[in-house]
Amino acid sequence: MRVQAVLVCLSLSPLAAFYLHAGEQEQKCLIEDVPGDTWVAGTFKIQQWEPGSHGFREPAPGLGMWVTVTTYGDERIHLDIRVGEHDLDAAKAQAKDKVNEVTFKLEHLTEQIEQILKEQNYQRDREEIFRMTSEDTNSNVLWWAFAQTLIFISVGIFQMKYLKDFFMAKKLV
């Protein structure tokens, strides 16, 4: 039961960690869809490919977040992106001894609830925009179908009248 609870808690964590490979002069754009006024923090680690050992070296010191790869080898870039309120640091709270454990957990849960509410409102707004766009598109398709039907009927009537006049002029009718 405890293992399941831990797994559920870990699966609900708003944390995304991954790595990507980048070659020389290659640009990568990472897009994270987050609501406005949401705090986004990230850490990164860059490892350079070492052909002799067929592995990646540990990161070099002094690299910034704007990374330009200038070597001919491959680079592995590890990213750890956190979205939401993360200003409560457990180590600082325990070191200062200002907040007891229950209060800390309560504040953390309150922040998580606020973040979930923000995300729900953001998704609601996006769904509303999508619904309006879908309704507009549906309306445009309906009017276009109606206009096409009128055009086809008009062309049919014109062709029937023209052929009737043609056959009368040739005295075939």
TrEMBL record:
It is a single-pass type I membrane protein. Keywords: Coiled coil, Endoplasmic reticulum, Membrane, Signal, Transmembrane, Transmembrane helix. It comes from the Eukaryota. GO terms for cellular component: endoplasmic reticulum membrane. Residues 1-17 form the signal peptide. The keyword Membrane applies. Residues 17-168 form the GOLD domain. Residues 92-119 form a coiled coil. The chain crosses the membrane at residues 141-163. Its main location: endoplasmic reticulum. It is found in: Endoplasmic reticulum membrane. InterPro entries: Emp24-like, GOLD_dom. Belongs to the EMP24/GP25L family. This is Transmembrane emp24 domain-containing protein 11. The lineage of its organism: Eukaryota, Metazoa, Chordata, Craniata, Vertebrata.
